[in-house]
Write a structure and sequence with these properties.
The chain is mostly helical. Helices cover about 70% and strands about 5% of the residues. The chain is globular.
Length: about 300
């Protein structure tokens, strides 16, 4: 029972991080109808900015100095992501309003490769580290119930709690603020929202900026765990099966989908993988997404598509 619970807890924590990245996809798609294939590149670009700013800032000693460096680096990276969001909306997407979905998808693919190249040009292509003080040592829980207790990685636990707090904050922002309600109105009907005076261009910049903030937090967490390297954008794309599973238009779907995939891939790798030579964790999420596309293409919580003839 102990190994099963350890794997389950690890899967839930990983799934929470997948959900965080998936939120960026959902927010942009809900507000603008754009499937942002560049979200993974945004995660990488934000992590690179955070890591390099922390290196470029004059180093201070002590715990307070390290905290100040991280805060300044995070603030600088956030300004960079807001600038990226503004540039994407003004220079690209605003020129493609009312275009076909495939046109917008290809535009985000172009943005992906542009951000990858720009990141290498500005920040370099080495492997960088991000140290935000997350605890690295494992800990043991429920030692009274299980022999030896349950082994839990403190860094994964802290990252999952941060991701959960951010998800809750975003949910409250969309539910209880005037800007959040405007974003929901735009998501429901662009033309109706525009007819009551909601400026679409400003809303889209806000949405992309929020998605950039989400990408920054995800990039810092993943960068702290894995190091900031260009394979990070591929890790972030694991959120694609999450949004397919949960539904492209559902924030709760992104959360539930991330948890399902996180738990599913960990359990399948540990308990089924040995019988098939391992590697299930690599393709599990994509096979599950394919099955959902065949059976329920709108996802668990997506809006059901009804065609009237």
């Amino acid at each position: 029972m102990g190994p099963f619970l350890e794997t389950l807890i690890g899967g839930l924590m990983t799934g929470m991080l997948y959900s965080l990245v998936a939120l960026g996809f959902v927010l942009i798609y809900k507000a603008s109808g754009v499937f942002n294939f560049a979200q993974g590149a945004m995660v990488l670009f934000a992590a690179l900015a955070m890591a390099r700013f922390a290196q470029w800032i004059p180093q201070l000693t002590g715990l307070s100095g390290k905290l100040l460096i991280n805060l300044l680096a995070f603030g600088g990276a956030m300004l960079v992501m807001i600038a990226v969001a503004w540039a994407i909306e003004r220079l690209c997407l605003s020129k493609l309003v009312n275009q076909e979905g495939i046109t917008l998808l290809m535009a985000t693919l172009g943005i992906t490769y542009f951000l990858d190249g720009l990141g290498q040009t500005i920040f370099g292509n080495d492997i960088y580290s991000i140290d935000v003080g997350l605890p690295k040592d494992p800990m043991f829980l429920f030692e009274q119930l299980f022999a030896g207790g349950l082994l839990v990685n403190q860094e994964d636990l802290a990252a999952a709690l941060i991701a959960a707090a951010l998800v809750a904050a975003l949910a409250a922002f969309f539910q209880f603020t005037s800007t959040g309600r405007a974003l929901r109105a735009v998501a429901d009907d662009h033309q109706a929202a525009q007819s009551i005076g909601i400026p679409l261009s400003r809303i889209w910049v806000i949405v992309w900026s929020v998605a950039g903030f989400v990408a920054l937090v995800a990039g810092v967490i993943w960068g702290s765990k894995l190091g900031v390297q260009f394979s990070l954008s591929l890790v972030a794309l694991k959120a694609l099966p999450v949004v397919i599973l949960g539904g492209l238009t559902s924030v709760p779907g992104a959360i539930i989908g991330g948890l399902i995939i996180g738990v599913g891939e960990k359990l399948s790798e540990v308990f089924i993988g040995p019988y098939f030579g391992g590697g299930i964790e690599i393709w599990f999420a994509y096979v599950l997404a394919l099955l959902f596309l065949l059976v329920r293409p709108q996802g668990l919580f997506g809006e059901k598509i009804i065609d009237r003839v």
